[in-house]
Amino acid sequence: MKYLDIESFRKLNTHLSFPTTSGNRHVLGRIEAYSCKAAGNDKKLYRYLENKFQADLEEAKGLSPEYNSLTNTVSPFGPLTKPASRKMLFYLIATLNASFPDYDFSSLNADQFIKEPSSDNCIKSICSTLLNVGCPSALKTSRMWDCIDDVIDLDECDVYSYTPDDDSDPYGEEGPVWSFNYFFFNRNLKRIVFFTCRCISNLDEVDSTSDQELVFGDLMDEPVKTELFPTSKYALKEMSIGGGLRL
Questions:
Q1: Whole-angstrom Cα distance, residue 16 to residue 25?
Q2: CA-to-CA distance for 15 and 30, rounded, in angstroms?
Q3: Contact, 58 vs 67, CB < 8 A?
Q4: Rounded CA gap, 26 and 28, in Å?
Q5: List of residues 6+ apart from 162 with CB closer than 8 A
Q6: Contact (CB, 8 A) for 124 and 238
Q7: pLDDT of 163-190, one tens digit each?
Q8: Fewest 10 Å CB contacts: which of 33, 58, 133, 179?
Q9: What are the residues whose beta carbons fall under 8 Å from the beta carbon of 115, sequence distance 6 or more?
Q10: For the segment 190-214, what is each residue's pLDDT rounded down to a tens digit?
């Protein structure tokens, strides 16, 4: 994956590091763009994933139920027996490798990714999250989604998310309170925008509030009406956002 240096993203990223409303935690996020053009070790990674899949098929042939299960598996990208589905898995793994060069994600499986219903759902989720942790006014007025749309054309994107387990979490050592990882993929442009963010504690000892309470908040809270990140095309005006993170 070839990293694309987007000036507007560099400016946005300066606003994606901020303390939460309580001051006890800090949000760290970044937005990056990648071309799906092979770069660096991408070809080696692709061959490795293809060989691994074929080896799994061969190993499962002697075990009929397992073989049938493997050949009929429908992943978030479609049946893994189709090269296009495996290529999509490769794109996401290669993006993670490029974004976190100190980690190796080649062992990830397709079921560790989720295909999101729509880009609109992801926009609402991200905006709700950042709003409820006290994002700075500079980010609210940054026209963030217009900047992203200019690079990736959100209407034409498939969106995937990645929720790592303990062994594959690049933020694991920080012990984040929460994190998210979204991939906006435009097949025609052969380009991915990767939006990753996490919240970490500033304190040596986290208070007694459980992580679940921190993530989901009080779902009975009065909805917040907002014009967060106003954009010409993706304005969230008059949208009610309730619950979410309360820090």
A1: 14
A2: 9
A3: no
A4: 7
A5: 92, 96, 112, 113, 114, 181, 183
A6: no
A7: 888 778 888 777 889 999 999 999 999 9
A8: 58
A9: 76, 77, 158, 159, 160
A10: 999 999 999 998 754 344 343 333 3
Residues 79, 86: Cα–Cα separation, whole Å: 8
Residue 219: predicted pLDDT = 32
Amino acid at site 90: F
Strand boundaries in 116-227, DSSP class E: 157-162, 178-186, 191-201, 224-226
Angle, to 10 degrees, between the axis of helix 64-71 and the axis of helix 42-60? 140
As a whole number of angstroms, the distance between CA 173 and CA 55 comes to 33
Residue type for 181, please?
A: N
Which tokens hold the place of 152?
A: 């990736």
Q: How confident is the model at residue 39 (pLDDT cuts 50, 70, 90)?
A: confident
